[in-house]
Amino acid sequence: MNLLTNSFSPWMAGTGSDADIVVSSRIRLARNLKDIPFPHLMDENTANNVTKEIEKAISSRSFKQKFGKTEFFKLVSLAPIERQVLVEKHLISPDHADGHPRRAFACTEDERIALMINEEDHIRLQVLLPGLELRQAYDIANMVDDKLEEKLFYAFSEKYGYLTACPTNTGTGIRASTMLHLPGLTYTNQIPSLLNITAKLGLTVRGLYGEGTKARGDLYQVSNQITLGLTEEEIIENVISVTRQIINQERMAREVLYRENRYALEDELWRSYGILTNARMISSDEAMNLLSKVRLGVELKILPEIERSVFNELIVATAPAYLTNLAQRNLEPAERDRERAKIIREKLKIN
Amino acid sequence: MNLLTNSFSPWMAGTGSDADIVVSSRIRLARNLKDIPFPHLMDENTANNVTKEIEKAISSRSFKQKFGKTEFFKLVSLAPIERQVLVEKHLISPDHADGHPRRAFACTEDERIALMINEEDHIRLQVLLPGLELRQAYDIANMVDDKLEEKLFYAFSEKYGYLTACPTNTGTGIRASTMLHLPGLTYTNQIPSLLNITAKLGLTVRGLYGEGTKARGDLYQVSNQITLGLTEEEIIENVISVTRQIINQERMAREVLYRENRYALEDELWRSYGILTNARMISSDEAMNLLSKVRLGVELKILPEIERSVFNELIVATAPAYLTNLAQRNLEPAERDRERAKIIREKLKIN
CA of B262, closest CA in chain A: separation in Å? Predict the structure, then answer.
């Protein structure tokens, strides 16, 4: 499956608004089918019926015409390592990779539109685009949602809105998030105060792979906490507005770093570049850390130009499951570290 | 003075026998003039007379014809930083750079033959050649010694041999030493046992800048301890024989390192190369440490070819006094670290 062996996805393009800081924008909608128990309460038979109904909806000719060809499969049909690759590609959640037989997945060939079936809700629809393009992502999500609703009956209450397994998602069922590269705020120790302020604005900031995970590569995800009591548009505008404020702070932090610490900064960024382009073994953590520095160095025009898409792709291309799956055999950690170093050298090669 | 601004000296050529490990060979003869107090006991007037006599001896037409043009000067005529450059170039001892008015210095234009005048003895004659070429260095030293003796009367006793200020130099007055690059023995922790064994053989092993200094860049100096009771030839053969044994051990250690730890070694050597070719600031200690690794990597053919002379020249070209003197102004430590990084990048540049 191309999905599992190709490390490049369209969200890595490095295009879109404010792409020097915003890696990607994501809209996720939570939907459930009417009169059917939520996934954690349903039996296998019901799960199969839900899966079939949704498969039918996305296999329709009109769906294909509008959004392109889709892949569809049950997650049990994949090896654990392959499921892990989908997590690393931000297409499914870690929970959805747990091997439970009810879980299924669908996505368009271009990976912009992805559906987790029978994760926490019957449907978790995701649209993922490069740069700060939340409105466009929402427009697409809306179209997919409308198209699905032509075939499916959603659980919806006039009073509460869309009903979801977890009450925090009830209402609009929307989560809008942006993935940001924040080395400037990290190195000037401003992340704790950022977390504080965004929490007060009803938003959360998390590390790269979602809830409870540590930020790696200075990549942070900003998303709304509340989905009830606000319209979708209000939620999206709120995330955009806070993201813009963080972008401004990050740009200022980079300026301050450069102005007040130029020589040490240049040295550190060039050394990171020197290590990444020469190392023969590298751990995932070190790679993410150094790639963040090199990306900063390229944005500050201290280092030679490297396309943004290269850095975005390397987030996935250097991840453990992706590397192991690509090798088609079990890799010892040391072998993985060598493969990782090799891929980084190849991708960073400047002609 | 070219001597102070040119970082390259003939002993850095990287030629001669076993030049993969032996950087240079040095013969030093201690001589004193008859019936004149040793330097630490003499007055200024006597010091001036000694200096003049020696200057006359090396300024003779026949001396020039045989050994080439020589520079001659009193050390007080140099700024302290300039004297320090001569120490870094291994042309004078740290003691001789102390600014005492009695001290003088002479060397041939090619820097192979150098004389410290009124250091511990009236004359300390040094011949410095690349590679393991102690016999050739001794032949040259002997010729210079003979030439000087045509004009000077040495303090010599039939019973003890050449008389010297310190009894450990009495007898032949010779010190034969080799400067060795021993990363293999260092990384396999064999230096302590090496020190032990060489001491039992009447030899000492010291760090790069002579007695009491720590080894930097994995460079060690092997030299004889005793000068009395043995002939010059026996002393030299002893140093050559022990040096050869160390060379063999070092080659074995490199083989073991490569065989048993290949991947980690390759990674470390490539990283060192990546840092040195990219860093924008580097301390003297870090530079020496990384240059040692890159040199090892080149010798093991893991890294791209770099001429041996480049590494030898960088020992001097990255030293603090040399860098400061070259800038012709007082450099802050951070500025010096930037200059050092720049010189290293330029010299390691591979076309």
Answer: 11
* Residue in chain B lying closest to A280 (CA): B267
Hey, what are A165's tokens? 């397994």
B339 → chain A, closest CA residue? A263
Vertex A98: Cα angle to A96 and A100 (nearest 5): 90
The residue in chain A having the minimum alpha-carbon distance to the alpha carbon of residue B342 is A267
Residues A308-346 pLDDT 10s: 999 999 999 999 999 999 888 889 999 999 999 999 999
Q: Which pLDDT value is given to residue A2?
A: 80
Instruction: Considering only the beta carbons, identify the residue of B267, B274, B334 that sits closest to A277.
Output: B274
Interface of B with A in 227-266 (CB under 8 A): 263-264, 266
pLDDT below 50 — which residues of chain A? 210-211, 351
Interchain proximity B271–A275, CB inside 8 Å = yes
- Provide the pLDDT for residue B213: 53
ipTM over 0.85: yes
Read out DSSP for B8-26? --GGGS--STTTTTEEEEE
Measured in degrees and rounded to the nearest 5, phi and psi for residue A125 equal: -95, 130
Helix (H) or strand (E) holding B343: helix B333-348
Residue B3: pLDDT band (50, 70, 90) is confident
Who contacts A115 (Cβ-Cβ below 8 Å, separation ≥6)?
Answer: A54, A58, A105, A106, A107, A123, A124, A125, A126
CA angle B63, B65, B69 (to 5 degrees): 75
What is the rounded distance in angstroms from the CA atom of residue B274 to the CA atom of residue B296?
14
DSSP A102: T
B208: annotated binding-site residue? yes
Residue B72 touches chain A, beta carbons under 8 Å: no
- CB–CB of A278 and B264 under 8 A? no
* Residue found under tokens 């026996």: B234
| Nearest chain B CA: its distance from A327 CA (Å) | 19
B26 in a known ligand binding site? yes
pLDDT per position as a tens digit, B33-44: 999 999 999 999
A270 interface with B at CB cutoff 8 Å: yes
Higher-confidence residue: B20 or B208? B20
Task: Indicate the helix (H) or strand (E) that contains A20.
Answer: none
Interface test with chain B among A261, A263, A270, A298, by most B beta carbons within 10 Å: A270
CB contact under 8 A, B263 and A273: no
- Sorted by where each begins, the domain ranges of chain A are 260-348
Per-residue model confidence as pLDDT tens digits over B109-152:
999 999 999 999 999 999 999 999 999 999 999 999 999 999 99
CB-based contact A341:A282 (threshold 8 Å): yes
